[in-house]
Amino acid sequence: MLQKIGFVPxxxxxxxxxxxxxxxxxxxxxxxxxxxxxxxxxxxxxxASKLTGVARAQHHMVSNASINYSIIGTNRILYAYTGGIxxxxxxxxxxxxxxxxxxxxxxxxxxxxxxxxxxxxxxxxGDIILFSDFSTITNSNYSAADFNGKKYMVTSVxxxxxxxxxxxxxxxxSGATTSGGIKYYQYYHVxxxxxxxxxxxxxxxxxxxLLGALTFTLxxxxxxxxxxxxxxxTQIKLNSVTxxxxxxxxxxxxxxEEISYTGINGNELxxxxxxxxxxTRAAHNTGVTVTxxxxxxxxxxxxxxxxxxxxxxxxxxxxxxxxxxxxxxxGECFEWDSNATNATDTRATIITGAPTASRDMLVSTPDRxxxxxxxxxxxxxxxxxxxxxxxxxxQENINDYVPTAENSAGxxxxxxxxxIMGAKLGRNALYIWTDSSMFTMRFVxxxxxxxxxxxxxxxxxxxxxxxxxxNGTAYWMSDNGFFRYTGQxxxxxxxxxxxxxxxxxxTSNQLVYAGINNLFGEITWFYPxxxxxxxxRCVVYNYLDSTGENPIWTTNASSLFTRTTWExxxxxxxxxxxxxxxxxxxxxxxxxxxxxxxxYFEHETGFDQIIASATxxxxxxxxSGDYDITQDQREGISFRGDGxxxxxISRIIPxxxxxxEDVIIKLDLRDYPNDAATTQTYTSTTSTNFIDTRARARQxxxxxxxxxxxxxxxxGTFRLDVHSGGRR
Length: 728
Prior knowledge:
Blueprint: E1 2-5, E2 8-11, E3 23-28, E4 30-33, E5 36-39, E6 43-45, E7 51-52, E8 55-62, E9 68-74, E10 78-82, E11 85-88, E12 98-106, E13 112-116, E14 128-132, E15 151-153, E16 156-159, E17 162-166, E18 179-186, E19 196-199, E20 209-210, E21 215-217, E22 235-237, E23 250-254, E24 257-261, E25 263-265, E26 268-270, E27 273-276, E28 289-292, E29 296-297, E30 306-310, E31 315-320, E32 323-328, E33 333-337, E34 349-350, E35 360-364, E36 369-373, E37 389-392, E38 410-413, E39 420-425, E40 430-434, E41 437-445, E42 449-457, E43 467-470, E44 473-478, E45 481-485, E46 489-491, H1 497-501, E47 513-517, E48 522-527, E49 537-542, E50 552-556, E51 565-567, E52 576-581, E53 590-591, E54 597-603, E55 608-611, E56 614-617, E57 620-624, E58 629-634, E59 637-645, E60 647-653, E61 656-659, E62 663-670, E63 678-684, E64 691-697, E65 699-706, E66 713-715, E67 718-724
Parallel strand pairs: 2-3, 6-55, 15-53
Antiparallel strand pairs: 1-67, 3-57, 4-5, 6-54, 7-54, 8-9, 9-10, 10-11, 12-13, 12-18, 13-17, 14-15, 14-18, 16-17, 19-30, 20-29, 21-28, 22-26, 23-24, 23-28, 24-27, 25-26, 31-32, 32-33, 33-34, 35-36, 36-37, 37-38, 39-40, 40-41, 41-42, 43-44, 44-45, 45-46, 47-48, 48-49, 49-50, 51-52, 52-54, 55-56, ...
C-alpha cells in the first residue's frame, strides 16, 4: 500500500535515529519554511578585496545623504564599506605622524627590515604601521615606492626600541645599517585573531627550574604560525644540537613560547609542534636564544584546564545618527562622521572625554545616551577598569560623562556576576548580561536617568556577541543552554542541545556570533567546536514557525557556511556576513599580513557560492530518523508492533514543491539499530514520476541531497509503496 511520509519540522538529535521516527535528524545547508525543508539561499562576494585579519563585528548605518555604510571591524583594521569598495577608517595613535631618522637596518638576501625608534615604542607583533615621506636608505635596493602609502604588519619586536617588517622582496644591496628617514603612523592595537588560553599555575615556567639547561641559537626565522624555519612544516634548525635529547618527546623554549620535537636530523629538530604547554605562538628572529626545557621541573603539576584566557580582538559598533561609534574591546572608543565631506577619506578619531577601557558599548535609543559596560571608575585611568561597572553619557552629548545637576550622565555597578559579558538594545530597555545573570536598564528620566533590575540568574551570556533581540524578545546562548526573555526568563527547549554543547570550545566563547535573518525568521549562532579555534559550525532556531510543542532547530557543519559576523537585512535589503580563512594572507591592503583574510558576503542570492568570478555549488542534504511498519494485515486480523515486521518497499513516489536539478534519494536499510546500514541510492529528475526499488528492512532512513551548481529543491510529501515482509 502507498504510505505518505510526513516528518515533523526541525532536527531531533536528543534521541537515537530509531527514537526519532517521524523526525528529521541531520542535514546540511537546509532550512524549514512553513514546516517544509528546503535548500538555503546562496551568497556572493561583496567588493573585490579581502580584508586583513578576521572580522569580529559589523554594523549597518545610513548617512544623512542616504548613503548606506557597513562598518566592519577586524582584529587589525576598522573598515567602512560602501558602493562595492572597502575604505580604511582605522584610528591612529599619532594622527599627524612621527618622523624617524636613521631608521632602517637590512641584510643582503633577507626580506626583513628592522625599524629603529629613538625611544621605547608600544608596538606588538601583528600591529599595523603606515609609512609616508620616505627620504633615503643607504646600501639598499628599497625605495620610496616600497614604503610610501603602504601598510605593513609588524613581524616581530626584537627590543623595546625596534620592530621588524617583512618586505615582498629580499635585499639585494650590501645592507643598510641604521640609515634613512621616514614618517610612520601607528594603528591602534585591537587584538589577536584567536582567543588564547594558557595552562598551569602561573602560566609557562613561573616557579620552575631548568636543570642543567643548555642554550643554543636559532638558525632561520620562525613566523607566528605553525611552521618551522622559513615556512618548513616540521623542522627547526639550530646552530648546534649537542647535548639535546634525541628520543621521545622533548622541549625547547624561544622567548615565552614552548615548542616540542620528536627527533633530530643533523642540526634540525624534527616533528615539531609550536606553542605547547599552554604557551602562545610568536615570531622569532634568526639568532635568538633557544633553551632546552626538556628537563624542566615545574612547581606542582599544571592544570588540565585553561587558567588564563586572552580575548580575541573584538569591536563594539553602533551609530548615533550619522556618526559611527566604534569601541575596541577593553580599549578606547572612537567616532567616525559619515556625513563629513569625503567621509571615506577620513579616519575615526578618539571620543574626547569618553572612557578609555570598556568591555562593551551601545547607544541607548530613543533617549540617545552612549553607554559603556565593564568600564573605568575613573575616566581616563585604565587601571580602574571594573568589569561590572556601567557608565553613560549625558543625553545627546557623547563627550560628557561626569554627572552634574545640569546633565543626565551617570553610572551604576551591577551586583551579580564577575564581569559584564554583553548588552543589546531591546524594545523598551537595554538588556545586559553578566557571566551569570541578566539585567534590564530602562530610561526613566530625571533624576535617575536609568533604572536597573535583575531579571534572571544562572543564565549568563556565553560571549559578547552571543545574543540578539527580535521584536522585543531577547534570545541568547549561555554556557548551559539557550534562553529567551519576553518579560519573563525562559529556558528554551532545544532538540539539538547536547549535540551543540558537548562539542563546544568554551575556551573560545568570545568567537560565538549570533545573527538574525528576518527574511526567514531565523536566529543563527556560529560557534567553534571543541577541536577548533575558529567558527566551524552553526545552530539555527526558527522563531517564526516554532511552537511550544515543536521548537524548530537545525544545525549546519558545512565548511562553506562558516561565519564570524552577521548583520540582518534592514539597511542593505539582504543579510551580510563575513567568512575568515586563517590560511589565506592575501589581504588587499597590508604587506606582510600573517593574520589570514576575510571575505564579505551578501546572502540569499541564488543557490551557489560566488567568490570573484568562481561559482561553487552549495551541497544540501536532509536525513530522517528510522521509519518502520507498525502493523501487518492477515486474513482480516491486524497485528501491531513497532518495527516488528519487515518492510518491503517496491516504489518511491517523489514529490517536490520545487526542483531545478537532479536530486539524490538515499535509503539506509537496517534490521536492528546497531546494524551497519545497507544503502540504496536513486536519482530523481524533474520529470521522475516514480522509482522502482527492492528495499527490504525493519527500519529505513531517508536522505534527500543535491550537489550540482544552481540546484535548488523544496520538499513536498513523499510516498512509499510499502508491504509487510513478515517477522523474519
